């Protein structure tokens, strides 16, 4: 009933009828700039560092593994089941919990862990943004509950800008129930415009590009 | 409703408040300026135009896109609920909470739910409502409404926050902002982990994807749509955009205009409950599509542009009126120029007809609006509507004085000789700078007295444009003759 009233009000106001489709939407402006491969890493690093993130650029999977191990050493961490992490052997590292039997178990681990380790489906060079899509391999809370988020990302996943991302993935909702464009650590400036990091999400974001 | 004269005078006289408003809005203005400059965003003007056209297209085919959006949400396993007003939203949520045994509800920041006073209504129904955006959390503890669309606690100092935290949370007095933030984090983290329902707003509704887009910096919206078993997004029907790729225009415009960030920290796109194989995320997903006066704006081609707003707050920051009187002197949750435009249209011109007059029509709002809403034009239009409403006159009718004034003016303008005489008389009269302020006090009386106490007329040019033109022409003729 409310639906019919609202749709009727809309049609009456616009002078439209029920069988009238919309003409195609105006073509969307697309940022034409495309970076060379070697430029993308530098641009991503610069933009994310400006947003308060930390970026390590390493050569190859062995070094990525080594960097993660040195960060995790002596701490508690939760890792996702992402194929990137599994290939690097991160879920099996000492101090790293992964592959939970239930949501409750994962929630308890994420609540207490000092670090959450994930990969990312894409990275956007222009703004220093990670694109995380929730799936059976990547849970939502691992990059959200622990005070530090570590993302291990192959550099082949960097695109130039948001327009290029949407060219690759025209409808993200077809692939995932929840996508997040993530740019830097959690922040607020709600009291006297003073910047504070880590208000609800992670205080530290460390991206390892390999 | 009357103009709140004494409250306005109080706000203007409060120098601490004036400082807070000026410094906060000033910082937001700087952020916008730096990130929309040609160096930072070369295609800024093209993007604004494109955003305007996309919004126009979506609004002018709204019935089609609403149906498309609803069908796609359903295909992802979500449910769409249409509500004509706030009462229907409350009724739906109370019923849902009862059915699903919900006690504690966490909320992320949403102007649409502020518009409905949703917390008050749901609390009366016995639910625990927790605002989780830091600014919203603070003003909820103080029982206030947001002072600004993007900075709800803009008017409060760290001392104010210390007072309310001590009183309401029972913690030791803490005046360091960083530690205050961590107190809020600890209190709210516990609420998140034990909440049954999460309510978010929606910055955009993507029709083709059946997805709700939520833009934030703190991570509280992510927690709200990740931890509780039921998720509800409440959004106005005007938030529809056709395609996901349109976000490549809207997201940068929104965050750069609002806070001067290239991208907000978290922009999420949500399509239905958790899918097969996922370990977390809500089991149930609802989208509430709200009318609450919006369809009233649709019939008029110009006025429907008020619905293009993406709530960045830039028009507030740049408005000389907002910056002087602050957010709480506007009668509704929406303040600043956009508030002055939508309040009379949503809630009725009879009661709120004075709002469009509270503007100097300087045009700063239109210049910074990322979707190019012609705010000053809409304000003028609404002034005419208000006049029609209160005086029962045709919206274009003038008083006899106005009519005769313009008749005389038009007659003078059509007769060059007369115009020149009038100009000479005028400049003779205004000879010498500051003649008005030097005039004796008794001469400054009547309705202009207040105006004249602050301003003076500039000294007229030594010779008029017409005189200069004649002189140059004759000089040019003389030089060309010499040349021959």
Number of helices of chain A: 6
Mean pLDDT of chain A: 96
Uncertain segments of chain B are: none
Termini separation of chain B (Å)?
75 Å
Task: Note the overall shape of chain A.
Answer: globular
Oligomerization state: heterodimer
Envelope shape of chain B:
elongated
* Content of β-strand of chain B: 5-15%
Radius of gyration of chain A equals 21 Å
Counting helices, strands and paired strands, the structural category of chain B is alpha/beta
How would you summarize what this structure contains?
Chain A is α/β, with parallel strands linked by helices.
Description:
The complex is a heterodimer of chains A (210) and B (484). Chain A is globular, with a radius of gyration of 21 Å. In chain A, the strands form three sheets. Chain A has a six-stranded parallel sheet with strand order 1-12-7-4-2-3, sandwiched between helices. In chain A, strands 8-5-6-9 form a four-stranded mixed sheet. The model of chain A has no long low-confidence stretch (mean pLDDT 96). Chain A has 210 residues and is an alpha/beta fold. Chain A has helices at 2-14, 37-50, 60-72, 83-88, 103-112, 162-168, and strands at 54-57, 77-79, 96-97, 115-118, 122-124, 129-133, 148-153, 158-159, 178-182, 187-188, 196-197, 204-209. Chain B has 484 residues and is α/β, with parallel strands linked by helices. Chain B has 23 helices and ten strands. In chain B, the strands form two sheets. Chain B has a six-stranded parallel sheet, sandwiched between helices. In chain B, strands 8-5-6-9 form a four-stranded mixed sheet. In chain B, helix 15 packs parallel to helix 18 (375-391). At the A-B interface, helix 1, helix 5, helix 6, strand 9 and strand 10 of A face helix 2, helix 3, helix 4, helix 8 and helix 10 of B. Strand 9 (178-182) of chain A pairs antiparallel with strand 9 of chain B, so a sheet runs across the interface.
């Amino acid at each position: 009933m409310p639906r019919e009233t609202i749709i009727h009000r809309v049609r009456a106001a616009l002078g439209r009828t029920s069988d009238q489709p919309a003409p195609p939407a105006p073509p969307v402006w697309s940022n034409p700039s495309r970076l060379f491969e070697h430029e993308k890493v530098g641009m991503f690093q610069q933009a994310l560092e400006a947003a308060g993130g930390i970026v390590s650029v390493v050569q190859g999977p062995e070094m990525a593994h080594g960097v993660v191990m040195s960060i995790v050493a002596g701490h508690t961490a939760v890792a996702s089941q992402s194929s990137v992490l599994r290939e690097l052997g991160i879920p099996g590292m000492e101090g790293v919990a992964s592959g939970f039997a239930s949501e409750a178990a994962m929630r308890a681990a994420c609540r207490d862990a000092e670090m959450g380790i994930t990969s990312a489906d894409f990275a956007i060079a222009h703004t220093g943004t990670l694109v995380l899509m929730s799936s059976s391999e990547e849970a939502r809370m691992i990059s959200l509950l622990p005070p530090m988020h570590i993302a291990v990302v192959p550099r082949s996943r960097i695109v130039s800008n948001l327009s290029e991302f949407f060219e690759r993935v025209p409808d993200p909702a077809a692939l995932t129930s929840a996508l997040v464009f993530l740019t830097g650590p959690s922040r607020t400036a709600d009291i006297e415009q003073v910047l504070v990091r880590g208000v609800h999400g992670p205080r530290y974001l460390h991206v390892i590009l390999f | 409703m009357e103009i709140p004269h004494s409250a306005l005078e109080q706000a203007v006289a409060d120098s601490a408040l004036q400082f807070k408003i000026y410094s906060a809005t000033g910082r937001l203005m700087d952020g916008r300026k730096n990130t929309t400059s040609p160096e930072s965003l070369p295609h800024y003007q093209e993007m604004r135009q494109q955003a305007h056209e996309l919004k126009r297209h979506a609004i002018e085919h709204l019935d089609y896109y609403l149906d498309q959006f609803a069908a796609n949400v359903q295909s992802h396993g979500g449910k769409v609920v249409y509500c004509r007003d706030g009462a229907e939203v409350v009724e739906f949520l109370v019923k849902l909470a009862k059915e699903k045994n919900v006690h504690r509800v966490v909320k992320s920041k949403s102007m649409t739910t502020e518009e409905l006073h949703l917390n008050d209504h749901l609390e009366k129904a016995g639910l625990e409502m927790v605002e989780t955006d830091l600014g919203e959390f603070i003003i909820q503890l103080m029982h206030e409404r947001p002072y600004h669309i993007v900075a709800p606690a803009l008017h409060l100092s760290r001392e104010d926050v210390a007072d309310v935290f001590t009183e309401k949370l029972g913690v030791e007095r803490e005046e360091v902002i960083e530690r205050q933030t961590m107190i809020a984090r600890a209190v709210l983290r516990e609420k998140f982990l034990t909440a049954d329902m999460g309510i978010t707003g929606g910055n955009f509704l993507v029709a083709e994807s059946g997805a709700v887009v939520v833009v934030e910096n703190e991570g509280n919206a992510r927690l709200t749509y990740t931890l509780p078993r039921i998720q509800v997004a409440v959004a106005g029907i005007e938030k529809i955009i056709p395609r996901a790729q349109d976000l490549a225009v809207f997201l940068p415009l929104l965050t750069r205009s609002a806070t001067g960030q290239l991208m907000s920290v978290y922009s999420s796109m949500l399509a239905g409950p958790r899918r097969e194989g996922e370990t977390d995320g809500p089991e149930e997903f609802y989208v509430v599509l709200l009318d609450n006066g919006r369809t009233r704006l649709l019939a008029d081609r110009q006025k429907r542009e008020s619905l293009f707003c993406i709530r960045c707050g830039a028009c507030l920051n740049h408005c000389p009126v907002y910056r002087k009187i602050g957010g709480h002197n506007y009668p509704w949750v929406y303040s600043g120029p956009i508030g002055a435009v939508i309040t009379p249209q949503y809630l009725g011109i009879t009661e709120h007809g004075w709002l469009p007059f509270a503007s100097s029509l300087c045009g700063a709002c239109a210049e910074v609006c990322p979707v190019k809403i012609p705010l000053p034009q809409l304000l003028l239009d609404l002034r005419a509507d208000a006049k029609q409403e209160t005086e029962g006159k045709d919206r274009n009718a003038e008083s006899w004085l106005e009519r005769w004034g313009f008749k005389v003016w038009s007659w003078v303008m059509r007769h060059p000789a007369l115009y020149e005489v009038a100009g000479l008389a005028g400049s003779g009269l205004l000879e010498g700078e500051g003649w008005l302020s030097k005039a004796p006090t008794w001469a400054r009386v009547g309705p202009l007295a207040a105006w004249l106490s602050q301003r003076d007329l500039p000294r007229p040019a030594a010779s008029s444009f017409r005189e200069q033109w004649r002189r140059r022409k004759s000089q040019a003729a003389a030089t060309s003759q010499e040349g021959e």
